[in-house]
């Protein structure tokens, strides 16, 4: 058993877990209106939990390629009501997909259990804020910024570069008082990477696991899948499942996805098979 604590909840990370994506950006719930959108977010969270998600990952900043930055106040206004409402209604682990120190601190006060930062705590004050919450963190690799990251990304040595970056961020997090056992790593699929970069990183998932960290993978519906299959975003589920299945076999344990139920079923079956020994 490898148990990790997420606030007041614990999770056995010898089992695979699904993290359901809950975007609280204005474009995610198109019929507008603050109240309507909170209701819609709650319904979506409830569905994902019924389907077996272990985490709800709440994000108020679009980090899609080319996306503009959101102001701190705007992000607080989007994220905090959702964190509060979900923490009150559901018994789950709330992950906040944020790089903003105030969002980390306020979300933690409202009951969040994980800080998921695509900028690996690089923003001013983020390391200190994350440490202050006492919560675990997911450190993700990104090359460039969401605005420019897909403009011909290149690496000297992809795996070594990503590994070195993540280990540097781990050292900085540890120096601030975040325990090594509280750190998840994520190669950052789609964040400043070509198709070949993404595929290679997924293929080398075990390298990151061998560093002694649990690995989180976020590949759901991403361009990588679209490029391989030549399909639009609403037809990327099977491809996403292929990518996630592949990394489960290479040791990844948390899967950040839009489609919870298919992944929960897939991972249950895969886990049973992987754990079965000549009965
Ligand atoms: C990721 C994320 C990811 C982690 C996003 C999208 C872009 N957090 N937040 N890993 N991606 N940890 O879902 O298309 O890959 S936002």
UniProtKB/TrEMBL annotation:
Function: Catalyzes the condensation of para-aminobenzoate (pABA) with 6-hydroxymethyl-7,8-dihydropterin diphosphate (DHPt-PP) to form 7,8-dihydropteroate (H2Pte), the immediate precursor of folate derivatives.
EC code: 2.5.1.15
Gene name as annotated: folP
InterPro entries: DHP_synth-like (IPR045031), DHP_synth_dom (IPR006390), Dihydropteroate_synth-like_sf (IPR011005), Pterin-binding_dom (IPR000489)
Keyword Metal-binding belongs to the record: yes
Keywords linked to the UniProt accession: Folate biosynthesis, Magnesium, Metal-binding, Transferase
Glycoprotein listed as a keyword: no
Family: Belongs to the DHPS family.
Reaction equations catalysed: (7,8-dihydropterin-6-yl)methyl diphosphate + 4-aminobenzoate = 7,8-dihydropteroate + diphosphate
A Pfam short name: Pterin_bind
Cofactor: Mg(2+)
Organism: Rhodanobacter aciditrophus
Protein name listed in UniProt: Dihydropteroate synthase
Biological or metabolic pathway of the protein: Cofactor biosynthesis; tetrahydrofolate biosynthesis; 7,8-dihydrofolate from 2-amino-4-hydroxy-6-hydroxymethyl-7,8-dihydropteridine diphosphate and 4-aminobenzoate: step 1/2
Residue ranges of every copy of the Pterin-binding domain listed in the record: 16-268
UniProt xrefs under SUPFAM superfamilies: Dihydropteroate synthetase-like
């Amino acid at each position: 058993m490898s148990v990790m604590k997420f606030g007041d909840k614990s999770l056995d990370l010898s089992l695979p877990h699904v993290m359901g994506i809950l975007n609280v950006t204005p474009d995610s719930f198109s019929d507008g209106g603050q109240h309507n959108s909170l209701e819609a977010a709650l319904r979506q969270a409830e569905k994902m939990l019924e389907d077996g998600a272990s985490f709800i990952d709440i994000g108020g900043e679009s980090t899609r390629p080319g996306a503009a930055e959101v102001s701190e106040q705007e992000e607080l206004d989007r994220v905090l009501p959702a964190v509060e409402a979900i923490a009150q209604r559901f018994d789950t682990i709330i992950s906040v997909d944020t790089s903003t120190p105030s969002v980390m601190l306020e979300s933690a006060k409202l009951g969040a259990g994980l800080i998921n930062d695509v900028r690996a705590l690089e923003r001013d004050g983020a390391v200190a804020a994350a440490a202050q919450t006492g919560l675990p963190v997911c450190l993700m690799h990104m090359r460039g910024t969401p605005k420019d990251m897909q403009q011909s990304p290149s690496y000297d040595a992809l795996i070594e570069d990503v590994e070195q970056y993540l280990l540097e961020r781990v050292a900085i997090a540890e120096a601030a008082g975040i325990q090594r056992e509280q750190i998840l790593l994520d190669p950052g699929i789609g964040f400043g990477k070509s198709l070949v970069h993404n595929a290679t990183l997924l293929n080398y998932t075990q390298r990151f696991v061998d560093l002694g960290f649990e690995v989180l993978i976020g590949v759901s519906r991403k361009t990588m899948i679209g490029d391989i299959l030549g399909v639009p975003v609403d037809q990327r589920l099977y491809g996403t499942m292929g990518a996630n299945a592949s990394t489960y076999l290479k040791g990844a344990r948390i899967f950040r996805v839009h489609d919870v139920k298919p992944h929960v079923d897939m991972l249950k079956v895969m886990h049973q098979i992987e754990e079965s020994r000549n009965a």
